Amino acid sequence: MQKHLSLIQDVRGCMTRFDPLTPEIVAAQSEDGLTYDELKQVLEECGMNIEKVVFDGTRTFQNAFYADFEKGHYCWIPFQRANLRSIISTMNQQFRVPGLDRARQNRDWAAFYMIEVPLPMQIYDFQRRYRDIDPDQVFSVWSSIHTHLDYANGMWQPEILEYVFSHAPRTEMPEPDEDGLITIYRGMGEKSQPAETALSWSSSPVCALWFANRSARGTRLVSARVKLEQILVYNAGHPGEHEVILRPGAKLEIQEADMIPSTEDHIPQLLAPVTLDFFRYGATAVNLGYPVEGLSSWHGVKHILRVLLLTLLYCHYSGSDLSEEDKLILIYFSLLHDIGRDSEDEDDTHGDKSVDLIRKNSIRLKGIQLSKKGYRIAKLLIRHHCRSDEIGLERITKVPNFTAQDARRAAKLYRIAKDMDGLDRVRFNGLDFRYLRTPYARRLPLVAGGLLEEPLLECIKESMAEAGEVPQ
User: SS3 string of 315-371?
Assistant: First the structure.
């Protein structure tokens, strides 16, 4: 899994070093014995010079590029005999296509960087070419590169940023609070620029969390209060990002949200105590008939498994005063809360549909035995989880024959259940963590993001196969 994440991070981030290629580097990187001399020969056959190849040993993938700045020709160099000749030959043919260089010749820099310069090499090219870019284009070109990179690792040189920002257009600023300040947020992953030196922030906490979770290894989410004059550019229109670009050198008082990082140092030991229960109840989830999510569906078995795992984490770590039956009620909820959902549209009645289906089919869950009142509370949570807190709490706590203690218990479990379901809204950039209801849930948004890339369904099916169980 970590290799998969590193590949994504490499492809979406910039090269940070541009070391010349050596025979030792090729020997260390090759997977099938490719030598420096073989690589040199293939390049020369295509009229390319191996001395123009640059290498970044900090990257796992796409860590070597042919870089002919003068011609604007760039090509990824694979250290494999099997793919090398075809990739180099194909790129060489593209370099020779009449009109391919039209964007650069016509000074259409937006098209040049979009079509001809690989993402990892765009900072490399821009920082050598920026003075050649028309002043009225230079900021928009920089902004496009900046937007498409997941991380820049501090590669932007201060004097170049000063020049670029001196040509930034005047933009409408966000509305400040009564004290004249606005709150900005920044979400970070393992390769992100530290908040203390970062220029790119967001006025949206939802968007900041999405950026932290984008690589599935979110590490921090911070906020700061800034004056309008500290903001260079505000871009509310870019796909909901509400991006705030600060002036270089802005002094910030940074506040860090108390969230558990979704890193390899934290997640394995976090999951270890709940793994057996996850496999146990996860097998039940697989057999409930939920669909597997697709590109346009969000409420299938993977969602159920994530909510289940978050629920188990809450029960184990939160320190909340939960009885054993309370924990089983929450597990029951996590497994069945969407069983009656029949569309992806917003639907505040699918809880009713789920309860109706549970009763109609007399659904019972293996390993979960509740008291009569326990089942009643569990179904109340399912029925009202898709309604507003105000409506849900009113209906749950005013049930006939409920004592005051019953009402408090149901309300407490309702808030927990809604938080565990709500945390998985990270999957479609829809979680405003400020409105989570319980203290421990507010520590889990980065963990929830990390779960999006974990093969939970595959792990459950493998466990079932090992136990001789067959998914229904």
Answer: HHHCCCCCCHHHHHHHHHHHHHCCCCCCCCCCCCCHHHHHHHHHHHCCCCCCCCCCC
Query: Whose CA is closest to 141, among 162, 110, 167, 115?
Result: 110
Residue 98 pLDDT greater than 70, yes or no? no
CA atoms of 351 and 339, how far apart (whole Å): 8
Q: Which long-range contacts (CB under 8 A, 24 or more apart) does 289-294 make?
A: 289/339, 289/472, 290/338, 290/339, 292/457
Domain that holds residue 231: 181-256
Q: How far apart are CA 184 and CA 205, in angstroms?
A: 8
pLDDT average, residue stretch 46-61: 93
Reported as a pLDDT band with limits 50, 70 and 90, residue 9 is low
Residue at a domain's end among 208, 237, 256: 256
pLDDT exceeds 50 at position 345: yes
Q: How far apart are CA 157 and CA 378, in angstroms?
A: 57
Shared domain for 150 and 201, answered yes or no, is: no
Alpha-carbon distance 452 to 456, whole Å? 9
- Mean pLDDT for the chain? 91
pLDDT per residue as tens digits for the range 408-428: 999 999 999 999 999 999 998
Backbone angles phi and psi of 232, in degrees to 5: -85, -50
Query: Is there a domain that residue 176 lies in?
Result: no
Cα separation, 466 vs 444, in Å, equals 31
Contacts of 178 (CB under 8 A, 6+ apart): none
In contact, 74 and 101? CB cutoff 8 Å: no
Q: Could you tell me where the DSSP H helices lie in 96-153?
A: 102-105, 109-115, 122-129, 135-148
Three-class SS of residue 280? helix
> What does the angle CA 304 – CA 305 – CA 309 come to, to the nearest 5 degrees?
120
The answer to whether position 472 is within a domain reads no
Strand positions, DSSP E, 199-332: 200-202, 218-227, 231-235, 243-246, 254-256
- Residue whose pair of structure tokens reads 């869950």 in the numeric block: 365
CB atoms within 10 A of CB 447: 23
